[in-house]
Amino acid sequence: MKLHVINTGNFKLDGGAMFGVVPKSLWSKTNPADENNMCNWAMRCLLIEEGNRLILIDNGLGDKQDAKFYSHYFLNGDDTLLNSLNKAGFHPDDITDMFLTHLHFDHCGGSIKYNQDRSGFDTSFKNASYWTNAEHWEWATKPNYREKPSFIKENILPIQESGQLKFISGEDSEQLGASISIAYMRGHTDAMMIPKIKYKDKTVAFVADLLPSTGHIPLPYVMGYDTRPLLTLTETNKRNGR
Fold it and tell me: At CA 104, angle to CA 122 and CA 120, rounded to 5?
């Protein structure tokens, strides 16, 4: 097995929203804000190369939204999904499995692209199975008012329309191979999936928005975006072994 970090670019979000009730005097020590109180965040994904499978975990923001949308997030940096895959020696057509921890736009926006004449949409990974779970799919396609702006329909519905959508069932289904199991988290959003990867003599977890940065490791550094912040605290505490 080989693991590749796939950088898809940086964007900015409000520091207060990212750290919830934690005072700025504390969180700004690790994540300094700009003059608009925005902090910069990397959208990193993970590529797993094992046997004849090439599994991509999350895919960043994508590039199909309009200029007004992107103006809210101050995209920056030179990394893109395509360039990072190319640096690792791969093409989007090589991806066999597109694993989506959850369907917020900054984690799944790269799933879908415009078709050639921009009259509709195609999947970005035409040979891949797209993995989510039935519970989160229901949550994302019938969104609550709080999360509705994060569940953008053109990032999500074309996956089903393509016939490439598949659902993970359970924690130890081995649908992604014997080396990958799933932990389900419900604090950030309902039924977010954390893949746990047996790598050499360790277990590597891709924690997604359970811990969106190293600045969120201390308790109670929980995002204001989380739907159930007290549950996030419990889940983070459990994963830290406390």
Answer: 20
Structure tokens at 57: 């975990």
Q: How far is CA 202 from CA 31, 145, 205, in A?
A: 29, 40, 10
Question: Is the pLDDT at 241 greater than 70, yes or no?
Answer: no
pLDDT band at 240 (very low <50, low <70, confident <90, very high): low
**Residue-wise over 168-181: b if at least 16 C-beta within 10 A, else e?**
beeeeeebbbebbb
What is the model's pTM? 0.95
Distance set, CA 134 to CA 18, 102, 230 (Å): 28, 11, 24
pLDDT one-digit tens code per residue, 15-32: 999 999 999 999 999 999
The three-point CA angle 236-225-132 to 5° equals 70
Closest among 227, 224, 222 to 211, alpha carbons compared: 222
Q: How far apart are CA 73 and CA 236, in angstroms?
A: 26
